[in-house]
Structures are given as C-alpha cells and as structure tokens.
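Quick one - first record:
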Amino acid sequence: MGAAYQRAVLVVLGLGVTLPIFLAPGHVSGPRLGDLALLLALPLAVMEWRRMTPVLKAAGPVAAAFLTITLLLQASQVGERLNAGDGAFWFRWIVAALVAPAAASLIVRDERRRRLFFAAILIGAACHLATYGLTLLVGLETLQGIGLASPRAVVTTVGAQVRITTLAEHPNAAMAMIGLAVPAGVILAGRRWVGRPTTLAGFGLAILGFVSTLSRGGIAAGVLAVLARIVVGWRWRERIRPLRVVLAVCLLAAGLLALQTGRFDVDTGRFAGRFDRATLEDNLAGRMLTWGRTVDLVLERPMGAGWSSADEMGAFRALSVSHNGYLFMARTVGVIAALVMLGLHLWSAARLDALTPLSVYLLMTLFTEDLTQGAGFVFLSCLVAALAWRRPVAP
C-alpha cells in the first residue's frame, strides 16, 4: 500500500508541475492540480522520515517554520489582513517546503521512482501542449467550462505576433512548463541520451510549445539544459557518438520541414520578429526597469509584502510583475528566503550529475519570469533546493 501511494504521489506531483488543470472550472484563481498534489503528498513527509538524511530531516521543518513566522509577521502589520489569495500563496510555500525533502529523498534513492516522476512531467507537458490544439477544435469557452483553460486565457496579438495561452494564463509561464519536457526527456534517456525517444520527444514538445507561445525564455532554458547534460557527460566520461548527434539534428530538421511543406503553414516571419534586435533591446530595457522597481520594493520591505493580485493592485498592476522568480520571491516571501533559494539552486546545478539539467533549466526560467507563485513551480523550486543536498546521481 505504501509503495502504491508513493508512486501515485510522484505521478500527481509530476503532472501538477506541467499540467495546471483547474479543479474548479470557471474560477479565475481556483485551485489547480498542483495544489491537490501538494495536499496529497503531505503524508509522504512522514512516511519518508526515517529514510531521509539528517539534513533533509531538518530542512523541511526549519523552512516551514521560517515561512510561517514570516507569514505571521506580515499579517500582523497594521492595516493588513490575510485574504484568500494570501492563504493559497502561503499554503503552497509551506506545504511544498515540507513535501520537497521527502520527494527529493525518494527520487535520489530509488531510480524507478525517479523515472516515474520525470515520465509524469513529460506526459504532463504533452497534455499541456495538447490544450492548444483543443482550443482550435472545440473553442476556448468549452475548455474553460471543464477546467482545461483559465478564464484569463486569451489569444494575444503583439506586433502581428499571435501568442496563445490556456492553462498557464501567460505564454511565458506556459512555455516554462512545456519546456520542462527537455530536461525530463534527457534524464529519462540515461547515459545514451542523444537520439533516444524521450530526448526527441522533449525537444519536439519544446519546439511546438515555442510555435504556440513564442516565448524565448523557455527555449533558451531548454538549450542550457542540453548543454548542461553535455557537461555532465564529460564529467562522467561518457562516450560521445557523433552519428547519434547528427541523427537527432536530422530528425528535428525533418520534422520542421514536414510542418513547413505539409498541412501546417509555418510563418517564419512570426518567429523572426521575436528575435529581432530592436525587439530584444526594447524587451531588455523594459525588464531592467521592472527589476529596478522590484528591487526598490524589496529594499522598502525586506521581509516581504506577501501576495498581491493584479485586481488588488488596481492602477498599480505593474507593481505585481517582477519578470524574475527570485525577485518575485524576495518581494513576497522575503529577501532572506530568496537568497537561500538561489544559493541552493546554484549548488544543485553545480553537482554535475543526472539531475543537473533540471536545476539549470529551473535557474534559467526563474531568472526570466515570475514563476514562484503557482503550486507547480513553487514545489519544483523547493524540490531542486532540497536536491542540493543529494549524493551524486549517475546518469
């Protein structure tokens, strides 16, 4: 019974990261699959306690206690009350802090459980991408009625560049979730990862995700994850097979060619616009202004200001955007927690083992978007932080 529970929890946690299905269709900020996954995984912290290393045993309770104290300090400030948005936000962080060390211990110790978790991430990414196709077949309103799209989901057109979003509500967040198929695929592939089916599936999902979202951050993170896997191969003295590399590139090129010459008309100008030099410069300038404004807010309240939704910000809606997961965490949870999280993520990436592509991917995506608010990426952030204490995991 315990083994079946472990497998089920890892599957739901993996799906919850990349497939944020709405459990209450029609509600803008309703609970998602990731929230349910965290709730179901709470007993895992108790079941894994005896098998966890001393550091992981202490990490969960200490982190949860620190977050709870921060929450109480914020709630005790004059004129502020804990609302539903705050409750959901802090629930995700506190429960994720308790669950992540247990999940990390299980993933590192048991290869079968590890493969199951990353297979769930890969499948979830594929299902997330499928919602874009369903939008064209059945319409956005139908998907919203069954919880496969948010009421905020829209098809946006910026400079004649159409960007689609459904489950994740923002194209950048959607691509970050779909792009997780790349590190998941190479981790599942093992030592001979070049040209393996899971690797090609991860690449294919990432490319199709970019076609829908036009998000540069997710593609860049996937490329960095692959480069990290190459470095890991050198670290573990793997044999590089040039023919496999050529085959993988040819297969991806053939797939793109089939899209261009087949039933699908790929508008190359639509993609080129996302990499136009002037566009990139304007985007970077805007992000630097956003980062500077967020740093000012963090300096004003270094212990964090808690959750604030766009509706609550009103005319100051832009203040709720940071375009950086670590800055967003510093503004909401506090600068101490954000710096600790960043340090542990860097440490996890520096392990140079089988799980390094995941750490590198997470670092890149968090530096480009406010992802430390949804249940899936909150859990993933805590998981990678807990994995910083792992023993080396062979590819």
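second record:
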Amino acid sequence: MAKSRNNLLGVGGQRKKLSRAEQQGAGSVREADRKVAEDKKQELVRKMRERAEAQPAPAAEPADQNASPAQS
C-alpha cells in the first residue's frame, strides 16, 4: 500500500523563531556570547600550551620502584 501524501506534517523541519532584532539584521546576544566564550577558550588553550612547552617532560621511573613489596 502506498504512503499517504496528504499528511505532510514534519516534512522539511522547523524554522527557528527570530526575534525582532534578528529580523532587522542585528545579531543576537547569543551569537556574541558564543564568540566571547570561544575567544576565552582559545586564550586558555594558548596559555596551557605555553606552560606545557616551558616545563620539562617528567623522567620515567625505573621498573624496580613500581613493583609492589609482596612481589619481591
């Protein structure tokens, strides 16, 4: 049996409701907040990378020190 073509509910998705400011071309506050958050994240990542590069890599410990006393 063929699908009914009369019921098109949900076809094509839903549209986002725009505020008056968005309809007139002004950006939303949400977009500005996302940009600020992304800028903060990029700055934090940059600082973490600088700190990681400045610190020497920790030396690996010998295997004898990692063994538990019960195994000795």
